[in-house]
Design a protein that fits this description.
The chain is built from 8 helices and 9 strands. Helices cover 33% and strands 20% of the residues. α5 runs parallel beside α6.
Length: 266
């Protein structure tokens, strides 16, 4: 199975802690053949520190240079495009003005609050109400963007939830009809489901119950991403994730060039 990591951040993301070259050296040391840098775009994020936009020209020059310096590693240009309902038109216009190999749709903000700041996000909310609201927001996001290739970390909210460890993951049974709606839209529009290995405890995001349901509904194509922001996180647990997805009946991991999908068998 080809070693690929399709969710990685460098210092060009507001929270990245590794240079692109440091990432390259780390990936090469693990035998990785292809990576996609998915720098953050969080237009309208309520926290100013999260709303920085990369210098794309500098970023592209570095990628071009390092693709030549390290020919054993293919470096693709991607973006993690974060939904925000109040800023969708601006986000679409901005992303449409740029050229990427891969667009990863994510959701960090619900009701203009990010669960990364749990004291604000989870205050005075029950788990059931909170998770239903989150899943409805994911459903809304996947239906309101036309141009994306994979949906990132469905269940992101659970990383920061104040519940017990066993209650943190967002599971299929939390809102079966809503999850089905999300997954059917992904499948019906030929998008991929991301398996994010920066999970909860020893798990992945989405939870296994959602991955299983995606496959039951006919979904068979995945992107795998470590969500690495440091060299210690790069490619972390991706081999285990691929083996797990294959054991459930998943068939393919996807790579992208100029938004064109290429499938690799698991």
């Amino acid at each position: 199975m080809k070693k690929m990591d399709y969710h990685v951040h460098s210092i060009h993301s507001y929270d990245g802690k590794q240079t692109i070259e440091e990432m390259c050296k780390q990936m090469l040391s693990m035998g990785v053949e292809e990576v996609c840098l998915t720098e953050h775009l969080d237009i309208g994020h309520p926290e100013e520190e999260c709303s920085g936009i990369p210098d794309w020209d500098l970023w592209e020059r570095e990628i071009h240079y390092l693709n030549q310096k390290y020919p054993q590693l293919i470096i693709k240009k991607g973006i993690e495009m974060a939904d925000h309902p109040l800023f969708r038109s601006k986000i679409k216009e901005y992303v449409g003005s740029l050229s990427f190999d891969f667009v990863l749709l994510s959701l960090h903000v619900v009701d203009n609050k990010d669960p990364y700041y749990p004291d604000v996000f989870f205050k005075d909310q029950t788990r059931d109400a909170c998770y239903l609201k989150y899943l409805l927001a994911v459903d809304d996001a996947v239906k309101n963007y036309e141009s994306y290739d994979s949906v990132a970390h469905i269940g992101y909210i659970g990383r920061y939830a104040p519940w017990s460890k066993e209650m943190q993951p967002v599971r299929y049974q939390d809102a079966p009809d809503v999850v089905d709606d999300i997954l059917k839209h992904i499948i019906g529009n030929d998008r991929c489901l991301e398996i994010n290995t920066k999970g909860i405890g020893d798990g992945f995001i989405p939870d296994g119950s959602i991955i299983k349901r995606y496959i039951e509904l006919g979904g068979d194509t995945f992107t795998f991403g470590s969500d690495g922001h440091t060299t210690q996180e790069d490619y972390h647990h991706i081999e285990e994730a691929k083996e797990y997805v294959e054991s459930l009946g998943g068939k393919y991991q996807a790579g992208f060039t100029n938004r064109k999908k290429k499938l690799e068998k698991l």
